[in-house]
Amino acid sequence: MANARTTADLKEAVAAHVSSHGEPAIELARAALSHPETGYKEIKTAAATAAAIRSLGLEVREDIAVTGMTAILRGGSPGPNIAILAELDALPVPGHPNADPDTTAAHACAHHCQLGNMLAAAIGLRAPGVLESLSGSVTLMVVPAEEYVEIEWRNEQRMAGRIEFLGGKPEFVRLGELDDVDICMMTHITTEQPHDGFGVGGTNTGLVAKFIKYRGVKAHAGGAPHLGINALNAAHLAIAGIHAQRETYKDDDTVRIHPIITRGGSVVNAVPDDVRMETFVRGASIDAIKSANEKVDRALRAGALAVGATVDVTTLPGYLPLAPDTRLTALHRANAEALVGVDRVHEFGRRGGSTDMGDLTQIMPGIHPYVGGAVGRSNHAEDMIVDDYNLAVLDAGKAMAMTVVDLLTGDASEAKRVIAEHRPAMTKEQYLTLQRSFLSERSYTE
Ligand SMILES: [Zn+2]
Ligand SMILES: [Zn+2]
Predict the structure, then answer these.
(1) 178 C-alpha to center of ligand 2: Å?
(2) For residue 1, what pLDDT band results from cuts at 50, 70 and 90?
(3) How many domains does the chain have?
């Protein structure tokens, strides 16, 4: 080793460098906030992110999974490769103060601050003398399309062969971008408590997504409804059927099913013949998702059966449950506590949301901690606003960079221990096979 600085010295240098040189990270977050874009359409956000990474003197590989990119920081000697991820996308949230007036896209999940905290981590690791003391590398991995929205449009992109998976990280896995990654981490922003600290550990549900189309028969709504088949009534009965199944789900399975109707007919004076729905079927385990998905399909068919309509059901691979690595969680937690104090780091429990970071934690050691600094009812609400960029961007970046130092200092013994003790739930090949097994396109008419 060229340098005898201790891990503690290096972490102090990293944190100090983010404090003194971290302004570009906040600027990147604010720039992304000003031009929110939904998944696989993050053109301006990607350009701003690539420029910000390049300004650190790093090479950027762009256009991965449409808008994604990677850049590598190399340590003084070879060793494990740690990915620090950030998500590019916003989601449609009409009424959000920073929403794009044309698309309604808004950063109501604060992914703009992930771009910032990833960049802050990179800035910290470039503090004088730090990278030279590390054995291994860090890949900045900027991914598109975490919010699983605009399902109909993304499914068209899939059928046109532009993507296979509707989420960005499954695409990155498919494209081999994770093949040489050993450990992964990212930090998500939340409105949950503690507002002035971090939430660590915890799990998320996984999901499959469904695009549903009821086909009926048009006829005059007042004059000749007996000649029509009402696709909206079919959808209504299907939703009632889904609700009637709720008592059959076990609490521990955290099943969440929340359909929306994206098209409810064409005109009010004709019997609705084209009604479209989207839904997620979420659950805490793959078995829970599969079982709930079968019940939902039964309810969807029942709606069509009752009124004599046809239903086309497309089921799409979604995300797998989050399973954070406990040793990594402990390392990150200690760094978060050093930055904000023990009282301001909470242990999170079982959560109902989903993320494709879950997919990565099924195939390698990874963490997906949360940081506060945001206010509002919850993420995805029109009042979700980041009000503490120092915490959400700079402190979150510091905690990740300090964790990298823990992992890669010396001969990277800590990273090697994490990798050796981690038992991935599946291999990349098993993961892709499982995800592909969820895809189905079925039509039902009695
Ligand atoms: Zn979100
Ligand atoms: Zn999010």
Answers:
(1) 20
(2) very low
(3) 2
129 Cα to the center of ligand 2, angstroms: 34
Amino acid at position 308, single letter: G
Instruction: Give the pLDDT band of residue 2 (cuts 50, 70, 90).
Output: very low
Find residue 274's DSSP bridge partners. 215
CA-atom Rg of the chain in angstroms: 23
Domain that holds residue 301: 206-317
Tokens of 93: 């949230």
Amino acid, single-letter form, for residue 100: D
- Averaged pLDDT score across all residues of the chain: 97
pLDDT at 5: 82
Residue 59: both structure tokens together: 């090479």
Shared domain for 58 and 132, answered yes or no, is: yes
Ligand nearest to the CA of 92: 1
> Do 182 and 112 sit in the same domain of this protein?
yes
103 falls within a domain: yes
The ligand with the least distance to the CA atom of 93 is 1
How many angstroms separate the alpha carbon of residue 271 from the centre of ligand 2? Answer: 39
Return the amino acid letter for 329.
Answer: T
- CATH number of the domain residue 388 falls in: 3.40.630.10
Contacts 24+ apart (CB under 8 A), 51-54: 52/24, 52/25, 52/27, 52/28, 52/115, 52/119, 53/119, 53/122, 53/140, 53/142
Q: Are residues 274 and 197 in the same domain?
A: no
Cis previous bond, 194, omega within 30: yes
Residues 173 and 235 in one domain: no
Q: Which bound ligand lies closest to the C-alpha atom of 370?
A: 2
b/e map 408-431, b = 16+ CB within 10 Å: bbeebebbbebbeebebeeebeeb
Can you tell me the distance from the alpha carbon of 444 to that of 214, in angstroms, rounded to the nearest whole number? 10
CATH code of the domain in which 244 resides: 3.30.70.360
Torsion over CA: 171, 318, 356, 432 (sign): negative
- Report d(CA 331, CA 417) in Å as an integer: 12
Residues 136 and 20 in one domain: yes
Hey, what are 318's tokens? 């979604």
